[in-house]
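thought: fold this chain, then report.
action: predict
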Amino acid sequence: MLSLLRNPLRLAEVAADPAQVSVIDEGLEVCPERVDVAPEGVQQIWRAVERLYATGTQPAISLCVRRKGRVILNRAIGYASGGGPGDAPDEFRQPMTTATPVCLFSASKAVTAVLMHKLAEDGLINLLDPVSFYLPEFGQRGKRNITLHQILSHRGGIPGLPTHESLDTLYDHEQVWKLLCAAKPIAVDGGKLAYHAITGGFVLQRVLEKVTGAGITEYLEQTLRAPLEMTYFTFGLDEVGKNAVARNYATGPDAPFPVSWALKRALGADMSAAAAISNERRWMDAIIPAANLYATAEETSRFFQMLLDGGEWRGRRILQPVTVKRATQEFGGCTFDRTMMIPMRYSAGFMLGGNPVGLWGPHTERAFGHIGLINKFCWADPDREISVALLTSGLALLAHHLPRLAALIRQINLQCAPLAL
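observation:
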């Protein structure tokens, strides 16, 4: 409480000279002119990152931008731990690096969705089948005809667990499954869009493990992690990862009502609780398919580059092009989301951009990606030929950083835009 009184906006320490807390992966970054980006354009993007860091709402930031398949930025700034709101003044400051793993939170859903589309590609499931075709017990209380595709596109009618349930329930998969099976849906025909913050991932995991006979981490390893040559990129962390991970911090002022109410309904927790839970060892030990995949920004950009390239990575076929198309094509149009409380465009697994402006900036109708707990932005844009991962450690909602966050996304799009845009 004393810490909050001294720091009411919950801001992190900010270095006077951002270069002193910055890391540039010079071995990976190519000359931007090779992919039709001006060197000054890269500098403009990085200056926008520094301005976002200077708000104090993001103790650590890592950014990887690929243009035409080549890395033009792979950089990090700030501290992975230490120097954040609530940290002791004498706590060791662990530098943020481009190799630091970060929890993707809801951006994990994009990866889980791709696993389901891979199952469909291999003929193990049909996404138009009801969940109850694979798991009959799910069909209770009118849910018999809710399909896998509706779960993927947030039209499955089960956007949240009961509000009275403890967050400890997330660690008991059998109890979660009982609750989901017993849940009364808000709609059974896919007619109501309501973002499934946590629930959908558990349903998809259950189906995946039923049809493969393997755990979701094993299937992820076989399908994506090993072929893409990832170091992290899996649910949870081993002991080495736990020692390297970026700590999450609740930053900025508390969200006012009704935003706070909507957040609690979606997540089951406010930002302070979400940060505290995500820093616990049991969160890092768990498998939560909608929320706790860990990766670096470069790994996340690599995943989206593979999708941008039609399912291919370094000459190796990961997914068929038609599978990528099915995963990223719009479903249902721009519709008011009853959880997010804003109009949204979704595919069966991804958040889509828009015209004249969308999540991924202006004129991004064909862009697809996913946000992770407000401030993590991961996307690919076919028009600009970019795959981007912006990973942050500050869980700030309505704070003074938002204009600078929007300005950073705009700079990425502006500097990488073809002449037609």
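thought: worth noting. The radius of gyration is 20 Å.
final: tokens above.
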